[in-house]
Structures are given as structure tokens and as C-alpha cells.
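Worked Example 4.2. Read the sequence first, then its C-alpha cells.
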Amino acid sequence: MESAPLLYADSPTAQCISPWIRLHLPTLHPVVQHRLIQLTTGLMETVDVRVEQLPSVLP
């Protein structure tokens, strides 16, 4: 199973989400992690979440 292309590779949202998902969901298959990061990034950018505020609200 191949990874999807990096649609949001340069996105600040993906750069913020990726380490969090990898830290908190380390047992996920790498392809599943990648797709979850891509899906979450797309959703968050669609609803215009302020990335600058994420580190202050994430546990």
C-alpha cells in the first residue's frame, strides 16, 4: 500500500500536527499516520484553524 502524495507537505498546519500524531499514536501503521495527517490538515485548513494558537491549547 503506497502513501498518498504529500498534498500539505509545506503546510504549517501539517508541520504542527505531524509530530503530535506521531507522538500520541505511535502504533499506527506509517501509511495510516500519513493519511491521518493529510486528512486532519485538510480539515483544519478548511475551517481556518489558527495554527499559531495550537501549541498553547494542546496538552
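Now turn to a second chain, presented in exactly the same format:
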Amino acid sequence: MLVWFLPLFLIFLLIGLPVFFSLLAAPGILLWLNGQARDAAMLYRNIYNGIDSFPLMAIPFFMLAGELMNRGGITLRLVEFSQAMMGHLRGGLAHVNILSSILFAGLSGSAVADTSAIGSMLIPAMEKQGYSKKFAAAITAASSVIGPIIPPSGIMIIYAYVMGESVAALFLAGIIPGVLVGISLMIVVRLMANRYNFPPATVKYNWAERGKASLKAFFPLMTPVIILGGILGGIFTPTEASAVAAAYALFIGLFVLKSLEFKDVPKVFQKAALVSSVVLLLVGAAMAFKTVVSLSHAPEYLADFVLSLSDNPYILLFLINILLFIVGMFLDAGPAIIILGPILGPVFTDLGVHPVHFAIIMSVNLTVGLATPPMGLVLFVASSVSGEKVETIAKAILPFLAVEVVVIFLITYFPALSMTIPLLTGFAK
């Protein structure tokens, strides 16, 4: 009977019940109907147990670092740096949008923060230069999914916690896929720029001007260097790295760049705490949900079903990518990873897929889902920032989603793209 928890969970989602309550209500009701009161009590105790974790402390600290960077005007410096490097190209502001997202990803690891911060500056600027509002919103939403792929990434921290993988290995494995997504979007922009005669954003900067823009962006750009350098050098753990990133963001905002005032700090902490609490509550509920997944033997049933379709891992990876893409249309990446990771991960590990490789496949696929209709979260944020309808943005984003899907399959069938850096550095074996 417990196996029916998943259909019941989907029904709750369809009728509009928030994910947190759906995750708890579906298994709780079935455990109660099944007479398993002790297991039902354990389900709700596991909410706290799921949150009470040292590795998960990285999430609120990275959220705080991103908020401090954003409030301190760091985003503006990244945009100016990107414009100095790429603004002279045809379709310059669209290229600037993508490069800014790549750089911002190394600060916050959040697609929503990227869409809000970069979109609020670049969407109006693109509109003034003659781009349609729907195109500006679409490229902003499409490029924002790079945020959770390039380290630091909250989604990968969650996956590592749930599946017992190395956070450092997942961070390193996300670098090349994230850059690939950015390059693929730039190729599409270049093709569209030639066809629709998009204008350059600025005249070509000389190297002195580029050097000046680089100096202005130096301290923000050092953030990912400090995070990854500290982790790879064994100086601190990923969790400690998140605290260092937040302290560094606070220090440069208040004392170096002086772009952040003391009166702004309480509001920044309040917003970071609110966003972090939502994420951590979802993690706690999903970890409790995971308990019922194991009690119901759903992983074993799914494994048998998957293996009955084919014994060829390449075909199975294709099918799972399709499944994950569909799931990403309706469910946020974090809850989807926590629910499906323990079910799908062991199946593909047994088929010979490296655990870190599968983690990247799943993380990138579900992250792209943040920009897919009908429920893509960044579509709604882009709509809010731009004032354009979600349906209009959803149509305009299709060419960009198409190339992101191509990147997903490249990552899937060419493991070296994601595995080379972790293997060379010894963080994946």
C-alpha cells in the first residue's frame, strides 16, 4: 500500500498544495491508514534530523554571501567587466548577460538570484537598445540556470548530502558543464544576431579600459578562487568555505569597495535567513519523505522496471534524461534531487555509471528545468522583473532550451566533460 505515496504526492502538487506539505502529507496519510503509527512519528521526527547536518550549513552561508554581493553592488561591477570584454560583439548586451551569469554563478550559485539581480539591470538596458522585451527576459532566464551548475552550488550540496558524495568532487565536475552551457547560449545569440541584426552594446574597449574594468571586478572575481582554492588546498571544508565566502563578501562590501552600509546588513541577513529557511525546510521534509521511500521498496520496484526496459546503459540514460526533463517542468531542482536521487542513483551506479557523473547529469538536467514551462521558477522571476507574460517568455526561450538539452546529452554520453577535473585532482575515484 505504501507504494501509492508517490501518486498521492503528485495529486497534492496538482491541486496546489505546497511542496513541503505534500512531501509530509502523502506518506503520513498512507502510514496512518496502514496502521504504522510508529513509522509515522518517525517520519515527522526526521524533519529535524534531516536539517541537523554540518554539511548543510553551507547553504545559508552561500545564500548570505550571494545577498551581500548583490546588495553591495557587486553585480554592477561584474556587468561592467563583461561589457568591457564582450560588449563590442554583435548582440553585445545578450553576450554580456550570459557572461555576467557565468561570473555571478561563482558568487551565489542561485538561478533565482541571478535572474533577479542581472535581469533588473540588463533587461531594461537591452530594451533601450532595441531588443524585444521577451528576448531580453528569455536570455536572462536561460543563462541564469548556469548559477547552480558552476560552483558553489546549493543543489550539488543537497545532492552530496543525500547521496553521501563529495561536495568538492561535484563542485569540480560542474565547472566544464556550466561553461559549456554558457558557450552554447552565446553561439545561439551570435546566430540570432546575424539574422536579426542585433546591435553591439558598446564600441570595442582597448586593453587599458579592459584592465580598469578588471581591477574594479577583481575582488568579486576572487570569491570563487578563494572558495575552490581553499577546498582543493585542504585549507577548509566546503562548509567552512561557505562561511569564509560570506565573511569575505561582508568585508569587501563594507571596508574595501565601501558599496555596502552597516544599515543594510540586518536586511541582508533577514532575506538570506528567509530564503535559507525555505530551502532547509524542504530538505528536512524530503529526508523524511526518503524514509518512506525506503520502507515502500519503491527503489527496488523502479530498478526492476528500468532494467526490464533495456540492459543497455546508454538507452537507459537517454530515457532517464527524458524523465528528469519532464520532472523539472513541474518540480524544483532541490526537492526533485532529494526525492529521485536515492531511487535512481543506485540503479545507474550498478550499471557502471560513476556516481559523480550521474550526479552531474541529474543536477544539470533538473537545473535546466528551472527555466522550462509550465512551472519553471526563473520564468516567473523573469516575468516579474521584465513585466512580460510568462507564456511569451516561455515561447522565446525555446531556442535556448534546445541547446541546453544538447549540452545535457553531451555531458551524459561524454563523461570526460564532467569527470576530468575531479579525477585529475583526486576528488573522484
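Notes for the reader: The chain has a mean pLDDT of 84. The two ends are 40 Å apart (CA to CA).
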